[in-house]
Structure formats: C-alpha cells, structure tokens
Amino acid sequence: MFKIITSVIARDLKLAMRRQADIVSALFFFIIVVSLFPLGIGPEPDLLRKLAPGVLWVAALLATMLSLPRMFADDHRDGTLEQLALAPHPLGMVITGKVIAHWLVSGLPLAMIAPVLGIQFDLSSDALLVLTGAILLGTPALSGIGAIGAALTLGLRGGGVLLSLLVLPLYIPVLIFGAGAVDATVSGLGGEGHLSLLAAMTLAAIGFAPWASAAALKIALE
Amino acid sequence: MIHWHSFSDFIAMGGYGLYVWGSFGTTALLMTIEPILVIRNRKSTLSRLKRQLRAESRTTAE
Amino acid sequence: MNDRFNLYRFASPATFYPLAGRMIPWFAAAAVLFGLAGLYLGMLVAPTDFQQGEGYRIIFIHVPTSWMSMFIYLVMAFWAAIGLAFNTRLSGMMAQALAPTGALMAFLSLWTGALWGKPMWGAWWVWDARLTSELILLFLYIGYMALVAAIDDPRRADKAGGVLLLVGVVNVPIIYFSVKWWNTLHQGSSVNLTKSSMAETMLWGMLLMALSFWMYSIAVALTRARTLMLERERHTDWVKAELAETQR
C-alpha cells in the first residue's frame, strides 16, 4: 500500500526536478508579494509586526495556488492519469502520494523561506519559529484541499482562475489558525492551541481530500 | 391593532426609514426581477426548442 | 424490486416535469399569502423594539434570507449526495436550479445586514462572525455556479458540482467555527442581533416571512429546474410531446 505512495512521490519529485524553474518562480512570487506589503503600507515596525502573520499567510495561500493547476494537468495530457485511474490500486492512494509530492515542492520551500521574510517584518525569534511551524503544519492541508479543486477543474477553460475561486474560500480556516498561531505568539498568549488545531485540519485534509479528489478525477476522466 | 398613527410615521420608521426601506425595497426589487428572468428564460428556451423540433421534423419529412 | 421501480419512476424528469408544473402555482400563491401576512404583522402590527427602535424591522428580511441561504446550501448538498449515490438525472438539475436563488438569499442577507449594521454599529460592514460566514457562503455559491457554468457536458457538470457541494458542506461548520473563534479573539464587536427579547407578534412575523421566502425559493427553483429538464432532455420523446402540446 505505502509502496504506491512512495513510488508516486518519487516519480512526481523526479518530474518536478526537471522543471525546477516552476518551483523557483512560485517561491519568488511568495517573496515578492510579501515584500510589496511594506512598500504599500509603510515601514513602521509596530505596524509591520502586526500585519506580518496575515500577509505571510495570504501570500503563502496564493503561492500554493500557482502550482495547483499543474498537479494533474501534465499527467492528464500524456495519458498517465487514465492508466493510474484504471490500475488495480485505489486512486486515492495515488493522489495521497501526489499531494505529498506537491507539498514537498511547494509548501516545504515556503516554510524554509518564511522566517527570512519574517525578519523583514521585525518578528521576534519566537514568532519566527511559530511561523515556520505553522506553515509546515498548515501547507499540507492546502495541498490536499487544492487537489480537490485541481481535479474538479481538470481540462476546463479558464481552469486556473476557476480553481482559485473554488479553493480559496475553503482555505479560510487554515489561514485563520495559521495566522492566529503567529498572532498569539506575538501577543504573548502562546500559539500551541492554534498549532494543534492546524495539525488536526492537516490530518483531516490529508485523510479525506485524496478520496474526494479521486471521485472528482474519475468524473473528469469519464 | 395597527401600530402606526399616520402614514408619514410609517414611512419615517422612527428615523430608520432609509435603512428599513432600503432593505425592503432591494429585497422586493430583486425578488421581482428573479422570477421575471426565470420566466423569460423559460419562454425563450421553449420557443428555441420548438423551432429546433420543427426544423428537425421538416428535414426528416423530406 | 417494485419499490425501487417506483422511486426511479418518480425521480425521472418525465414524471417530475408535469408534477412540478402543477405544484408551482401553489407554491407561488403560498409565498405571496405568507409574505402579505408576514408583512402585515411585521410592518404594521408589531410594536417598536425598546432597544433598536423601528430599525429592528430589518429582521423580517435579514433573518429569513440568512436562514434560506444556509438551508438552500444544505438542500443542494442533499441533492448532490443523492445524485452521486444513485446516479439520478434529476438531482443535478435540482441543485443547479437552486444555486442562483441561494446566492440571491446570501446577497440579500449581507445587504440587509449592512443596512442594519449602519444604524446599530455605526458602520456598513463589521467583521462580525455571522456576517463574515455569510460572505464566505456567498463565495461558495459563486464557486459552485462558476464551476457548473464552465463544464459543457451536463453530466460531468452535475457530478463535479456535486463533489464540490459535498466538500463545501463538510467545510461550512469548520469555516463557521474558525470565523467565530477568530472573531472572539480579535474584538468583541459581535452585537447579538436576534437575542433581544422578542414580542410574540415579531416572532410570528419573522416565521411567516421565512415561510414566504421558503415557498418563493421552491417556486423559482422548480421553474428553473423545469426549463433545465426541457433543455437537457430535448431529444427524448416526452419533451417532444410536451413541446407539441404547447404548440397551439
């Protein structure tokens, strides 16, 4: 069972490594969006510290959105997806692998770069730590929920914009608790409660989303 | 049983007229427009389908 | 076996179409009657609220539209579940026919909420938990309608829309509680709109208005569903018979 997941992850990572430019541009999108905010708002450290969690999280949501349309589109184009759907092992397992692979190339780099960007916003080291942890914990849920949207909009015209319309409202709880964790740390309340809720959401998303995506993919491939 | 003393009282709504009538007016307007649009869409669909049906029966008759 | 046959027969557009056609005038009439009764009680008879003055009368629109916007989403999700489980043609059309009315209800709820908020809170928009959730619900409606509109094949549109609705309905409580929690953490601005002790006439007025909006939604959605049925089944014999009958 787990062999399917690991082999899908390995395959998707190999494919992603061939197109490193995509990963890098999503990462730079994140960096640029976050850096634009101080220019728009002004450089007062107090204000920036207050805005940092929300800004970083919204930028992270948008950056994960960028790579979502690619999640199934390439496999769909060359026919791999139909073979995977017809294969004896459950499609949900395959998608679990694809979700994890997507997170490794989108969410994980964001979490790595986020503390650096947090410094721009004058966050304390505690807050930076919680920010990294929150992005690490929350982005798998984004990849999971995003997989449903990617499967639903597979092959549709205007798929990218439509995808964001479907998926962004569903991202709201992750945004609230992700940004809330950092907020709570900044204000000295401690972000543990938020982080555990975030972890619960990620577990639920990783558990359920692949199966919903599998149903959506089968509909799209019919 | 009527709560109001005069019609102008009713319109003024104790100073909240703009808000109350703004709510009721928009709702009444939209809930009139929606059925009109739905019925119009139904009529145009019906006539289009009838046209298609007639065209089809003509081609099969020939 | 017989039972099953009946269920399918009932769920087939050919039987449902004339049935719906006979029911629509009744629902429309009920909507008007309940609406008139509700407006009479709410606008003419109900006393002034001791806290909010006459401004509270927006409740007679705001609460029914909020209820309907949530209820219609649940009904759509119910049809989606039926459609995905039993593969019935009717359910997708019902969900699609309900969506615009649900979105309208969500919009009206927001609009009246803003008009209520201005005199009560001093601002058109407050990030109150309930208003925020209603806004997100409107986004969900828009997402559903955009997805269904983007798919040309009606069967795929029904099923994809169904999956989205089920995912959405699982998320609605999570979104609601997260927004509520976010709201209590950030500021205590959520004034309770409905809790102030209500006179009996107010309650009845509100319930009658809610019934009226309910009947209205059914009538509009059924009309829309009937049009969808004709369009989708235009190559079947029953639609051709139906069209020939109304030819005169």
Describe it for me?
The complex is a heterotrimer of chains A (about 220), B (about 60) and C (about 250). Chain A has ten helices and no strands. Chain A is mainly α and about 220 residues long. In chain A, helix 3 runs parallel beside helix 8 (about 125-150), helix 6 packs across helix 8 (about 125-150) and helix 9 (about 160-185) packs antiparallel against helix 10 (about 190-220). Chain B has about 60 residues and is mostly helical. Chain B has one domain (about 5-60). The longest helix of chain B has about 45 residues, at about 15-60. The N and C termini of chain B lie far apart (about 70 Å). Chain C is flat and about 60 Å long. Chains in contact: A-C, B-C. At the B-C interface, helix 2 of B face helix 2, helix 3, helix 4, helix 7 and helix 8 of C.
Beta strand count of chain C: 0
Oligomer: heterotrimer
Proportion of strand residues of chain A: under 5%
Structural class of chain C: mainly alpha
Average pLDDT rating of chain C: 85
Number of strands of chain A: 0
Tell me about the largest β-sheet of chain C.
Answer: none
List low-pLDDT spans of chain A: none
Model regions low in confidence, pLDDT < 50 over at least 5 residues of chain C? none
Q: List the secondary-structure elements of chain A in sequence, H or E.
A: HHHHHHHHHH
Report the average pLDDT across residues of chain A. Answer: 89
Compute the CA-based radius of gyration of chain A. Answer: 18 Å
Summarize the structure.
Chain A is mainly α.
Annotation keywords:
heterotrimer, B: 62 residues, mainly alpha, C: 8 helices
Topology, element by element:
The complex is a heterotrimer of chains A (222), B (62) and C (248).
Chain A: H1 2-18, H2 20-41, H3 45-67, H4 70-77, H5 80-86, H6 91-105, H7 107-120, H8 125-152, H9 159-186, H10 192-221
Helix pairs in contact in A: 1-6, 2-3, 2-7, 3-7, 3-8, 3-9, 6-8, 6-10, 7-8, 8-9, 8-10, 9-10
Chain B: H1 7-12, H2 17-61
Chain C: H1 2-10, H2 13-45, H3 59-86, H4 89-121, H5 129-150, H6 154-186, H7 200-232, H8 237-245
